[in-house]
Amino acid sequence: MHILDELQQRGLIQQTTDDEGLRKHLEENVVTLYCGYDPTADSLHIGHLMPILMLKRFQMAGHRPIALIGGGTGMIGDPSGRSTERSLNTPEIVQGYSEAIKKQLAGILNFDQGENSAIARNNADWLSSITFIEFLRDIGKHFSVNYMLAKDSVESRLENGISFTEFSYMMLQSFDFLNLYEQEHCTLQIGGSDQWGNITAGMELIRRKRFEDQAEEAEVFGLTVPLITKSDGTKFGKTAGGAVWLDPDKTSPYEFYQFWINTDDRDVIRFIKYFTFIDFEEVQALENELAEAPEKRGPHKRLAEEMTRLIHGDEALKQAQKITDALFSGELTALNAAEIEQGFKDVPSVKIDNKEISLVDLLVEAGISPSKRQAREDIQNGAVYINGERNQEVSHQLTEQDRIEETFTIIRRGKKKYFLIRF
Rounded to two decimals, what is the model's pTM? Predict the structure, then answer.
């Protein structure tokens, strides 16, 4: 199957600049393509995943992807899709972010695959060396203000105002495409649909520079992926705790797994098509399973497995599944301290210095019960669980046997209220 047919079947193409021309170009060449990622944080998040995985899909089809890290453009900030200007970071911060993102990309793309090995480039390499006068003379002259004002990324900001700094971003991204075309013979740029104006501006710059140099007309293309929306109206990639990051120190593999397994039934098949490499025969089987037995949540588990394995590896997936199973079954003593840290990251946590403490005193000191009288009632009524086991002994004294790896005790009050006690 042609790579464009597969992408269309998965719903991954929003726009192309020339569908027939690109189709032929991909058939006749090992195409070098790129997508850019500005280092606005020390980690990418799942909102970046679709274009990253697009690069991977093209690589699997035999083409050559470039992951462009915006060490230069990251100093400016892309106005696309934003209503306010970004805060500017120092060069040192941007450089640190760039290195972290490069490592993450290396975990997804294959940088050791012969002719079509992925390449990581940083646009600071050319943007930091060009002078302002050179840029205005050699690049700026090819952009009319009217042309730039008509682009959505600029037009949408005019009412509230846009600085010259952000206004110039389009020229910088266009310069990226020109440099990658000249240095790597990169002929295709991909990105989110909000990048359409920047992509087409880059194509126009290449054509104008080629005409100026009296060279043959360049055959370059643009392709965008759709911006992801959720059926319930909430923003994709956001949870109550904020963004879902690819860095396991910012979003643990268990939290990452839980994000995907909790996908809305209305979205799960679409997300399987978008984000996984599952073949269509299996996708159809999962869609049938969802229709026939939605309560089993088979497609949700498959999606969570594929995504957690892709980003964090097999061991992290096994750990996330172990935590999930333990929380569902209540068999919490099966977990080690590191797994408890992951699984109970967001529950109330209390540090207790006294290792010899009665259950009644613990419930009060940790704020689980408001008074000793209430604590006794809770225990007698069977509402208190220690590490998943109900305890109805009012006189119970906590011992080392009640602590997991001598560090944690998990108290549950009622059906769902968990508390993590640290000794």
Answer: 0.87
